Amino acid sequence: MAAVLQAAALLMGSQTDIKKFRLRSALRSAPVRREGFFIVRTDGRLSATSGVMPRRAKLIPNAVAVKADTTASSAASKPGHELLLFEALREGLEEEMERDPRVCVMGEDVGHYGGSYKVTKGFATKFGDLRVLDTPIAENSFTGMGIGAAMTGLRPVIEGMNMGFLLLAFNQISNNCGMLHYTSGGQFTIPVVIRGPGGVGRQLGAEHSQRLESYFQSIPGLQMVACSTPYNAKGLMKAAIRSENPVVLFEHVLLYNLKERIPDEDYVLCLEEAEMVRPGEHVTILTYSRMRYHVMQAAKTLINKGYDPEVIDIRSLKPFDLYTIGNSIKKTHRVLIVEECMRTGGIGASLRSAIIDNFWDYLDAPIMCLSSQDVPTPYAGTLEEWTVVQPAQIVAAVEQLCK
Amino acid sequence: MAAASSLIKFKSPFCFLLLRRFSESPAEPLTMETSLPFSAHKCDPPPRSVTTSPSELLSFFRNMTLMRRMELAADSLYKAKLVRGFCHLYDGQEAIAIGMEAAITRRDAIITAYRDHCIYVARGGSPFEVFAELMGRRAGCSKGKGGSMHLYKKDASFYGGHGIVGAHAPLGCGIALGQKYSKEGTVTFMIYGDGAANQGQLYESLNMAALWDLPVVLVCENNHYGMGTAEWRASKNPAYYKRADYVPGLKVDGMDVLAVKQACKFAKEHVLQNGPIVLEMDTYRYHGHSMSDPGSTYRTRDEITGVRQDRDPIERVRKLILSLELASPSELKDIEKEVRKETDEAIAKAKESPMPDPSELFKDVCVESYGAEACGPDRKEVKAVLP
Question: Major location, coarse class (chain A) (predicted)?
């Protein structure tokens, strides 16, 4: 019975597809009213708009090794080594420090203590106190010093012991990190990496459960990526260090002990690329960081219920990889965004507006966005659980979208 | 570049003639006494006798006159609405930029706040690039994207022009960290004002600089007013050279270019050996804080005229040159005329310089590496309606 229904649904889907296609082609041939619009490419060239832009040749990922999607996939058969997410970060950082003497680490307790989440464990003895600089508790100033050092050509990796503490350094991150390249007319580059654990942990209270990506996203000149697996943690860490731009690398406090087998050979990921976690046909679920696991949990239920969701870890929080996202929307025509960020002014809000701007014609249903509640994260376990999106909500949302 | 070299050396044949007339060799050393002694905190002050030369004194006179002329011209341009936004003028404080530059090399770094036009010129930038930037032209030193507060000159280690009071203090200490890291043997001069001296981040970064013996000189340009608030109304202890208790300090007459030169030379040697030092330069700005401040509500006209008459840095050098008979009054007048001509030409050229191209809007937001493109919140290409 279910199979029959599913087949019917597919048929219906394909019919609407055909209709949509006709409608779209009609729209295309009609004179477009956005004649006054130009696409200004960042290299200064102007070109008239023509719907969805093709992917630039430059955006080919720099990954040497290509990895199959999910974390739990057949590990035993593959070569490589198994490690935890924080160890992957450490490995990436260590390799870059060995490769380039200009790479250095600074932050609270990164040296002799070994890093509050052990990402820099053993570095002080290996690289010395100047390259692994233990700073006093003065986030604003040590972030500023990292930026100053970057202006002279160093490539500091600045660790915020907790992302929430970086609010003290907001002025440095915004005015100096993000804007200095522009205000100096391109004279200075700020190749820093700002990284640290954020997100809702286990009853850490309001200040230590922050998702700063919503605050940082409007800073021009800043790039933001969120890692979610040991594989992409290492690849993004290395890419962030090699990038000439200031990059904020978001780690999640609950993902540090995630285990995965990663390749032995050297690889670097693209900072502006989303990761296809699970290809599917019915609905595009866009997510990042820890919510990826809530989505995958919900996906299991959804598959059992006969849905075929496509799950994308957007990974690059700024700029969004609209190529991957757009291709998926063109296929599924339905979008669900699942994030841990705040509902108001969060990544989901920006993503939704970007999708509406660029892929409106392809949508068959309103975009749904599940975000954390707009409350200071409460301490009590049950309240905290209600603050962030749970798998059951994701299942319900997909069911509603695909009705 | 031509203007840059004219700043440092005497290009005009007139100057060489003039020097030959009054001294056998323009580089022949002269020893002068600073008018005021240095006050030291936790260090031995440098001697009051400063070595200079006739050519150096004449270059001081010429460069300070150029700066003064430039700032007055910026004032008129602002009133003519060719310069907009913020504009903070340096007139009165020229001796600090000049004296500092005389004591260090272009590999030593300087970073300052928003009162930066003259520091940029002292570092070898041309007045044309300053005016072009002030008028938001393509040829400006930051391509017209920075404005008055954002002048930078990377090739001469000038790390800018920063708009937030005190927020460049950590950057300055970070530059010194970079210098120590790469074992260059160079130092950083981080210039801040008496207003910024009450910013917490200054002391945070000074703590780290002292902890790690970074080669940074904290230069407090004390012009006695943080915008319109007199120092004694904002600081419990306005002796800024003593404010960083555990870090040595030196109070310098910032209106005496030779004292500034001596102090900076001393400070450079000190920081390479012992870590940071604070130099408090006692100075005065004739203009208001910025163009919106007439500069007369919180201080008296008499006070300003008094400083102009008794302590003006340019008049001081003029008197020195005349008393040593290094040049005649009319020859100094000729230098002033030459400087005025140079400034006027720079302004005329800047006025003719085109505005930035619309495509420049998205350039320099991000460096293109690893495919990084424009970083709107969401896209690799940015849609925009252009005029």
Answer: plastid
